[in-house]
Write a structure and sequence with these properties.
Layout: H1 2-6, H2 9-56, E1 70-76, E2 79-84, H3 95-102, E3 109-114, E4 117-125, E5 131-136, H4 139-186, H5 204-252, H6 261-283, E6 294-297, H7 298-309, E7 316-321, E8 325-328, H8 330-347, E9 351-357, E10 360-365, H9 372-375, E11 384-385, E12 388-389, H10 393-403, E13 406-413, E14 416-423
């Protein structure tokens, strides 16, 4: 098997085709031979009958024409008058014995087997002493069998050769396409996934090329997103660091009041929050083991989040929650629901309504509708909407939902916006 795997694909295909063709051909020959055997025996009998008719229609005292595959015995007054090709019987019978057997046997045909040879007889009684016997052996069968075998052998060789040539041409074209695809795939990293993969055709190789091209576009898009994120994170960190540095230098130079250290603390908190978001986003890449998941009470988590937020806002937060559960982790669901609620608090005018019914969780806020063209981009990291920057929060929400097989949708409805989460 290892040696077989080391062969070229075209060689494997030709070898398999040849083995299958030869094997099936022998089975076919065996089956057909059994079917044709009876047919050829019948042909032999038919040609014997035709010759028998010629012999018995020959005028009296005239010698019948000889045949290559048949012989005859003509008796008159109990004596052998004519004979032809008696050697066909290979010495297994004598003229007198045949006359004795068939002159009293009913019917007009018979066959007898001696060893592996079978002999066929046709006879006519004109009177008790006038008798004609026509016979044949296996010579006719041997000749037709040789012709048949030669024809089948030539046909078999032609099928194998034609099939192998066809398979060779097809496999060479196929292997060339595979090699071309292999070369294009090997160049992906060198071209930084920028060069598209193009493969003509509508077969499985073209489908594979299309799938690889789709993967290339996703990798290219992912790289672009990571590059944008890196730039945005760098810019995001630069401002609080610059503020912290400037106030720290002012305090060190005694040109700032001590109470302005609160600004440094506030900027440090901003940095801390951004670092926590980055760590949260990174943790999602390792959240793949379902053994860590459990059935989590959604109602319990949302009530905990609301209790933490009730002294931070004047908005009314209404809830209507059943006892549905998600198969996930508490920590990650806490982050998801917390980020959605933070977003709602940022944009709501007067109230937020959270409902949970039959595992369908809805966060409604009565803020301004989101631009339709922006809804699809809402979950991209650092994507900016009509009212500023969403940062990493919504991106974390979407990726976490995907990990737990949850669908996340955002829809504009009358008088507000809804974030909807439900299982696939």
């Amino acid at each position: 098997m290892r040696r077989f795997k080391k062969m070229k694909l075209s060689t494997q295909i030709n070898l398999i085709f040849t083995i299958v063709t030869v094997f099936t051909s022998f089975i076919f020959l065996f089956a057909v031979s059994q079917i044709i055997k009876d047919s050829r025996i019948q042909q032999n009998k038919d040609q014997l009958n035709a010759y028998f008719n010629e012999v018995i229609q020959t005028p009296a005292l005239s010698k019948p024409d000889e045949s290559r595959y048949n012989g005859y015995l003509v008796f008159q007054d109990g004596r052998l008058l004519y004979s032809s090709n008696f050697e066909i019987l290979d010495g297994n019978f004598t003229a007198a014995r045949l006359f004795q057997i068939y002159s009293i046997r009913p019917g007009f045909e018979a066959e007898d087997t001696k060893g592996e040879d079978t002999y066929y007889f046709r006879f006519q009684r004109r009177s008790e002493s006038d008798f004609t016997i026509v016979f044949t052996g296996d010579d006719y069968l041997s000749v037709t069998n040789t012709r048949y075998s030669a024809f089948v052998f030539v046909s078999l060789i032609a099928i194998i050769l034609l099939g192998n040539i066809t398979i060779l041409l097809w496999s060479r074209i196929t292997v060339d396409r595979v090699k071309r695809l292999q070369n294009e795939v090997s160049l992906l990293t060198k071209n930084n996934y920028r060069v598209p993969i193009d493969m003509d055709g509508a077969d499985e190789i073209a489908d594979l090329a299309y799938t690889i091209e789709k993967m290339r576009r996703e990798i290219e898009s992912s790289d672009n997103i990571k590059q944008e994120m890196l730039q945005n994170v760098s810019h995001d960190f630069k401002t609080p660091i610059a503020v912290i540095r400037s106030y720290a230098e002012a305090i060190a130079d005694d040109i700032s009041e001590p109470h302005e250290a609160a600004i440094i603390i506030k900027q440090a908190d901003i940095l801390n929050q951004k670092v926590k978001q980055l760590l949260e986003l990174n943790k999602l890449e390792y959240l793949k083991d379902p053994s860590q998941f459990e059935m989590v009470s959604i109602k319990e988590i949302i009530n905990n989040i609301i209790n933490q937020q009730k002294y931070r806002t004047h908005l009314k937060i209404k809830t209507d929650l059943d006892d549905s559960k998600y198969f996930a982790t508490k920590e990650n669901l806490f982050t998801v629901f917390g980020n959605i609620l933070d977003n709602a608090l940022r944009y709501a005018k007067n109230e937020i309504i959270i409902t949970l019914e039959n595992k369908k969780l809805t966060f409604f806020n009565d803020g301004e509708p989101i631009s339709e063209k922006f809804i699809e981009q809402l979950f991209k990291p650092y994507e900016k909407g009509d009212k500023g920057q969403f940062g990493l929060g919504m991106s974390i929400v979407q990726k976490t939902c995907q990990h737990f097989n949850l669908i996340l949708k955002v829809v504009n409805i009358e008088n507000g916006v809804e974030f909807i989460i439900e299982p696939l």
